[in-house]
Amino acid sequence: MAKLTLENVGLDVPMYLHGERRMGSWWSVLGGAAFSAPKRQFVTLMDSVSFEINDGDRLAVIGRNGAGKSTLLHILTGAYQPTRGRIHVEGSRHALMNLSLGFNPDATVVENILLRCAAMGTPLDEARAIIPSVLSFSELGPKSLHRLRTLSSGQKMRLGFAISTSTHHDIMILDEWIGTGDAAFVERAKERMLNRVGGSKIVVLATHSLSLIRQVCNRAILIDNGRVKSIGSVSKVVGVYKDLLRRHAYQEQLKRQASLGSEQAS
Amino acid sequence: MTNLATGIKSGNSAAGKPLGGQWLWPDAIGSLRRPEFWTFSAWLDIISRYRRSRLGVLWLFVPPATTVLVIGNFYAGFSGRDPRSFMPYMGMGYLIWRFITQVIGETASVMLSHRPFIMDGRTRFTDYIFRALSKAAIYAFAAFAMVSIAFLFSPMASIQGFLTLFLTVPLLVVNVVALGVVVSLLGARYPDIQELTTTLFLFGFLLTPILWDPALVPKESIRATLMYVNPAFHLVQMIRSPFLGGSVESITWIYVGVMTTVMLVLSTALYRRYARFIPIWI
After folding, report:
1. What is the pLDDT of residue A264?
2. What was the ipTM of the complex prediction?
3. Residues 51-80 (B) with a CB less than 8 A from some CB of A
4. Looking at beta carbons, which residues of chain B come within 8 Å of A88?
5. Which domains does chain A have, with CATH numbers?
6. pTM (2 d.p.)
7. Which residues of B touch A102 (CB under 8 A)?
8. Helices and strands, number each (H, E), in chain B
9. Measured between alpha carbons, how far is A243 from A63 in angstroms, rounded to an integer?
10. Which residue of chain B comes nearest to A117, CA vs CA?
11. B33 interfaces chain A, CB cutoff of 8 Å
12. Which secondary structure element, helix H or strand E, spans residue A60, and what is its range?
């Protein structure tokens, strides 16, 4: 039984803000960069977020850049502890946010598999058993004894993905997990994820790919400005999201027209 | 049911509690029970560093060997002392000093360098402190191999001296871990700590009896006062004197006893109060 409940969760964090400086000459720019002390201020990143996800739910987290998607995921992984409200988790959590987590560039591919497994807390014998399947999935079998730094970034991504998805967890938390990688691998990764999604009881997925959401998720949440803008079925939330984007684009257009108009007037 | 990612029973996270970063002792015990990550990654950090070199892991032994043999010999002649007894004296001081400074230097930025792990929800922060500790310990073992050779050829060589290490070294490790916890918390909040430690080490090196003999420092002098204030002085003396068949001043035992207690209480309290803010600070 896996369950994730958030009740009125809010998060304030300190941020360092650099004061505005006059950028008169090149020298004052250099001097200002060196001597202006940053100010520490508390900023609310997340406010009154409440929702509940149950067994079998696959939740998509969507929103514009900087809306608070990653912040929400960091709260769900347990990295950030909410300033207000409560979070209730049943089941084991596993995050897949950074595919190259903990890699050592001078160690071999096999050593890196063991290293990452150790970082995930997998016992050694289990980790050793995983090696062949990871190598075959990432198609790195012939390179297993090469140093990691000789691999291309796409190959490293494959390796990280293959390791992270080789153990089962109740709750999977994923952030933009298909980045680089050729089309064939992306297809296989998607397939594996759908498979994995079947294995994990709850999946939380932050992404900008609407087609991926439609394929994988059954629920969605739209975050805007650190607050829940909409939550519910995928089609409903994606509709609200598209509306938001359209409105934003329209406002941009209005602004552009206004500035063009004022230029023409002058 | 056990959580694969953390080795913690999921009952623990059932209440929505984070996986670590609450109390120091449960986290430390958790790290000790699951040493795979911090031992293996520390070991890989070190050996992979030497992979591109011809001598490989032998480079671990070159700096301590040169320090003990070359600098030890040279400095002994310089200050008119017997090189055979001076080499283990200086070698031991050097290795303890390096162990302390390596752990402190690394823990000052350890949370920042483990940011990706922490952001994935791996908030058992003691794992990262132990990683820094085991890295420094590997260097210390390599240096100790060199010091042992010098020790065997010195007039002070004795089994009893060697056995005292089993008592004094754990005391050093406990102090260094507690200090590492405090420094890692401060370093996560104030990046200045890293710069500050480098400066302090410069003074600390001068005030720690690695090259000189504390018996030659005139009592009641300012230098003697500074020397007795310096914790590294007491930690070095506590280990090295009995090892080389000497005795330890009672003030050193009192200092170390008080320091151990204070550091344990302080690190536990600070961890309890501030560890939860680490993800936000970094």
Report:
1. 64
2. 0.73
3. 51-52
4. 15-16
5. 3-92+169-239 (3.40.50.300), 96-168 (1.10.8)
6. 0.79
7. 41, 116-117
8. 15, 0
9. 12
10. B37
11. no
12. strand A58-62
